[in-house]
């Protein structure tokens, strides 16, 4: 092995070596990358500082001795400990922005990025967005991306986990948004001020226990608090649906990601007109409801509240 490693010179050499190693190790991808090549490239180009979207010449750049050692150490941890690359590197990308992450938060990977890039058109009055809430914020990536897309808006990031909010606060500072983005420690909406949000976005825990127990080992490295949505996966979603209308302006809208629990949610409320979002770049299970719709169906949401 050492003789083989001595022959590796460029970024591409190390990426291809990592790709082969990862394929042979039967790893799972889905925490920001989808293939062994992409995972290896993410590790190598992050360590060498050569991450790029368009400049393919970086693949031929020579890797120095210090970075060779770091790459090999990261590969070893990725294979032996099944730790997702973002945790090993301490960072992840979302909405074209770099975020600090650790094992207190889920690794950003939501299709919300596409909705934010479109500024939630045509369902949001974009010229008059003053207050946004990111509920169950984790690393803060969705809310911070919203703050970037809506530069005149104030954004609150709420989470039950103080450890997650510590990560979110670091990301607020990293993106120089302390004047407009605030964190709130709250169990769902319990301690969130009812000041009237134009937009509430939420990627809450929505994985049921049966699905959670069957996930690949990489998911066990993420905080269970960020994944566990109760026995069927929708406990927190039912509560959000019941409470959200009290926190929205009259023209406000709610967007919630429920992933693979989308069919179960629709079956739970067959007459609720969830507007399921379509994505050009992958992803599913995100719905939109207006305040009027939330109020109209509030009695149905009451029936399904967790005990």
Please give a quick description of this structure.
Helices cover 37% and strands 15% of the residues.
Overview of this protein structure:
It is a single chain. It contains 13 helices and nine strands. The chain has two domains: 2-89, no CATH class; 102-303, Vaccinia Virus protein VP39 (Rossmann fold, 3-Layer(aba) Sandwich). It has helices at residues 2-6, 11-24, 36-48, 65-81, 85-89, 112-117, 141-149, 162-174, 209-213, 235-243, 262-268, 291-296, 298-303; strands spanning 91-94, 97-100, 131-135, 154-159, 181-185, 197-202, 248-257, 275-276, 286-290. The longest helix has 17 residues, at 65-81. By secondary structure, it is α/β, with parallel strands linked by helices. The chain is globular and about 65 Å long. Helix 2 packs across helix 3, helix 2 (11-24) runs parallel beside helix 4 (65-81) and helix 3 (36-48) packs antiparallel against helix 4 (65-81). Strand 1 and strand 2 (97-100) form a beta hairpin. The model has no long low-confidence stretch (mean pLDDT 95).
């Amino acid at each position: 092995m050492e003789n083989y490693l001595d022959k590796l010179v460029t970024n591409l050499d190390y990426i291809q070596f990592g790709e082969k190693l990862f394929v042979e190790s039967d790893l799972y991808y889905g925490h920001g990358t989808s293939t062994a090549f992409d995972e290896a490239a993410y590790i190598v180009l992050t360590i060498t500082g050569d991450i790029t979207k368009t400049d393919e010449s970086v693949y031929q750049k020579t890797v120095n001795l210090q970075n060779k050692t770091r790459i090999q150490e990261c590969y070893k941890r990725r294979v032996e400990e099944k730790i997702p690359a973002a945790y090993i590197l301490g960072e992840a990308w979302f909405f074209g922005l770099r975020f600090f992450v650790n094992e207190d938060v889920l690794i950003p990977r939501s299709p919300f990025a596409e909705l934010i890039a479109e500024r939630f058109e045509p369902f949001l009055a974009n010229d008059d967005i003053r207050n946004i809430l990111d509920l169950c914020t984790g690393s803060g990536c969705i809310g911070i991306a919203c703050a970037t897309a809506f530069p005149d808006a104030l954004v609150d990031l709420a989470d039950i986990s103080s450890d997650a909010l510590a990560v979110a606060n670091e990301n607020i500072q990293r993106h120089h948004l302390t004047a407009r983005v605030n964190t709130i420690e709250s169990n769902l909406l319990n301690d969130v001020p009812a000041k009237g949000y134009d937009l509430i976005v939420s990627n809450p825990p929505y994985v049921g226990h049966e699905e959670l127990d069957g996930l690949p080992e990489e998911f066990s490295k993420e905080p269970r608090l960020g994944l566990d949505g109760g026995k069927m996966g929708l406990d927190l979603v039912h509560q959000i649906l019941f409470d959200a209308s009290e926190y929205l302006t009259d023209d406000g809208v709610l967007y919630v990601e429920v992933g693979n629990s989308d069919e179960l949610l629709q079956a739970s409320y067959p007459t609720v007109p969830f507007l399921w979002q379509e994505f050009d770049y992958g992803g599913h299970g995100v719905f939109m409801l207006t305040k009027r719709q939330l109020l109209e169906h509030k009695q149905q949401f009451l029936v399904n509240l967790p005990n």
